[in-house]
Amino acid sequence: MAHGFHFFMNPGPTNIPDRVLRAIDRGAIDFNGAEFRTISDECFAGLKRVFKTKETILAYAATGHGAWEAALVNLFSPGDKVLVVESGFFSLNWGMRGEAFGLEVETLANDWRRPADPARLEARLRDDREHRIKAVLVVHCETSTGVVNPIAALRRAIDAARHPALLLVDTISSLACIDFRTDEWGVDVVVAGSQKGLMLPTGMAFTAVSAKALAAAATAKLPRVYWDWKRLLGEGSQAYWNGTAPVHFFYGMREALRMLDEEGLDNVFARHHRLAEATRRAVRAWRRNDGPEIYASEPGAQSNSVTAVLLPEGVDADRVRQTCFDKFNVSLGGGLDRLKGRVFRIGHLGDLNEPMVLGSIAAIEMALELTGVPHGAGGVTAAMEYLAAEA
Ligand code: PLP
């Protein structure tokens, strides 16, 4: 029997603020009517501020997988080649979807604990003299590892190689958590979802699309109907939407975007940094006595959305995770793919504050003790000291 709050610390979906839940709690309206148009216009304008783009944003009733697919089917023809910058489970999965659509997918192999190296991308693109590579696919924050890739530097690498490839970036666990600049960084397609930094339920996904990407879509031959950008951009009563618009998502999104505006995006990023750094200080304290460590090995590339915690060899990370859940009502993310049982993941993104993070860290520290995992004491204290100094 669980009492009190459920501490939901998964790296997505995330906590939905009461304000957003209350905004959704109203009846349906005609999605072809003027009232909905006003709400939807406010939402798309707000999204453009969050994506930092003046270009087109298109939305779908789908999870992030839908936006991944929308990007692929709108941009490419069978046999086209794309280059996936490996970062972990999600980068490879995006590539696998390309293969399923008959694309030739090359992977720029990379150690999962480190960010991608722009020099290696530049060298690979310089080698591609015939410009067979149509696009570079990168995950900004790799949610399976907690590593952030340097998108601006990767863009500069493409430019330095004088290569025309499109740059496609997955921001599913970074948008509205970690600074991301679509236009300034020259990103052609940005993929995003509703259920992380945007603090909404799961089920809405987005692509921001540059003029260059729209031009590529005009000649791309993969079949698409629901995802088709041309249909979505068509003028008329359903412009920007295919089918019945999910008006409740828009009610929630308008409120979430207002909350982000009120806090100010820079303050949102600073809060994410503060809570992430507190988490990292705790894990660094646990690291003593050969205890758990932060999986992302380069401090400059450690994510402010999620920290993957690598357990000592021979320790089952899922036991620690299950103990947190069973004994303390704290939910953490598990390890994915080759990291299953090796890491647990602490999501510190979305609608969170200091006591929520401290309470969760305390539960993890107790679970380490209860499961007999070697670790240093004082993780909670280290996090508290940091947060108090930053307050
Ligand atoms: N890409 C990243 C970086 C993710 O974190 C996720 C989900 O966690 C996805 C893609 C897939 O998104 P969805 O689960 O919404 O389909």
Topology of this structure?
Blueprint: E1 7-9, H1 18-24, H2 34-51, E2 56-61, H3 64-75, E3 81-85, H4 89-100, E4 104-108, H5 118-127, E5 133-139, E6 141-142, E7 147-148, H6 151-160, E8 166-170, E9 189-193, E10 204-209, H7 211-219, H8 229-233, H9 247-263, H10 265-286, E11 293-294, E12 306-310, H11 317-328, E13 330-334, E14 343-347, H12 354-370, H13 379-390
Bound molecules: pyridoxal-5'-phosphate (PLP).
Tell me the span between the first and last alpha carbons. Answer: 35 Å
Rg from alpha-carbon coordinates: 21 Å
Number of strands: 14
Strand order of the largest sheet: 2-10-9-8-5-3-4
Q: What fraction of residues sit in β-strands?
A: 15-25%
Strand and helix order: EHHEHEHEHEEEHEEEHHHHEEHEEHH
The chain-level mean pLDDT equals 97
* Residue runs with pLDDT of under 50 for 5 or more positions: none
Q: What ions, cofactors and ligands are bound?
A: pyridoxal-5'-phosphate
Fraction in helix: 40-55%
- Let me know the largest β-sheet: 7 strands, mixed
Shape: globular
Q: Number of helix segments?
A: 13
Summing up helix and strand content along with how strands pair, one would put the structural category as alpha/beta
